[in-house]
Amino acid sequence: MQFAYLDESGDLGARGSKYLVTALLVTARKKEIENLIWKIKQRLYQNKKEARWLDRQGGEIHFHGFPNKNTLIWALRELNRLEFKAYAVVYEKKEGQVAVEAKRFILSAVFEEIAKNNESVTVIADNDFFPLKKMKKGVFVIGQKSLAESKLFDYDTTIITEEVYKQIQDSIKEKVVKVEHKNSTLEGCLQAADLISGSIFQKYEKNESIFQDIITDKVWVIELVKK
After folding, report:
1. Where is 177: in which H helix or E strand?
2. How far is residue 179's CA from residue 162's CA, in Å, rounded to a whole number?
3. What residue numbers bound the domain in which 148 lies?
4. Looking at the chain, which terminus has fewer C-beta neighbours within 10 angstroms, N or C?
5. Three-state SS at 187
6. Angle of helix 48-56 relative to helix 30-44, nearest 10 degrees?
7. 56 in helix, strand or coil?
8. Pairing relation of β-strands 121-126 and 85-92?
9. What is the full DSSP assignment across 118-175?
10. How far is CA 89 from each of CA 1, 94, 117, rounded to the nearest angstrom?
């Protein structure tokens, strides 16, 4: 069974970053990725300053603020050796704040690839990532768009809670993707997804591509940017 780990870099507000990057790491070998995240932490703990940074993060790896560039490059190279693929959407914030509709549109772009490839996956995101309050588990219904609608993407998504899905699942003909909220501090693969989204964000926001270049063969990027 495959698992997909969802992460964002950037912010939704009117002020702050110019871009929002949403990345989805898909793997059936999550234990190998979790082991790598553990090794990265062990490297950081060998240096007092880096260990203090990691402790301030609650023991959680983040791309933003990563205290050692050489270790970060090593980590991405090691991650690139493992078995995974990733999808990412780069969204340029034209109007400043990212509206709920825009975020739903971004997720549609990410999940379209799952629908196209007919992959059976469970999507895992950090607590409170999805808009439904207090949702621990839910379902994304992925439906084919009508010909009258925009053809930028062939699919649209609607999120419902697992309880609602159980009530109506017999009547749903569309593809579905199960989603779960989990604590990213306890999920190494969510931290790996953060490294991927952060690497792509760094290219667009800071014009520094050295990190994305390491993983470029594993990541399919959709650009939703101004022309």
Report:
1. strand 175-182
2. 9
3. 2-224
4. C
5. coil
6. 130
7. helix
8. unpaired
9. T--EEEEEETT-SSSTT-SEEEEEEEEPPTTS-SSSSEEEEEEEHHHHHHHGGG--SE
10. 24, 15, 17
CATH number for position 148: 3.30.420
DSSP-derived secondary structure for 79-124: HHHSS-EEEEEEEE-TTSSPPHHHHHHHHHHHHHHHHHTT--EEEE
Is the predicted pLDDT of residue 40 greater than 80, yes or no? yes
| Identity of residue 114 | I
How big is the CA angle at 217 (ends 216 and 218), to the nearest 5 degrees?
90
pLDDT at 148: 33
The CA distance from 164 to 110, in Å, is 23
User: Which residue would you say has higher pLDDT here, 159 or 222?
Assistant: 222
- Count of domains observed in the chain: 1
d(CA 79, CA 37): 9
CA angle 11, 15, 17 (to 5 degrees): 45
pLDDT digits (tens, 9 = 90+) for 84-130: 999 888 888 876 666 555 666 667 666 666 666 655 677 888 876 76
Backbone Cα Rg of the chain? 18
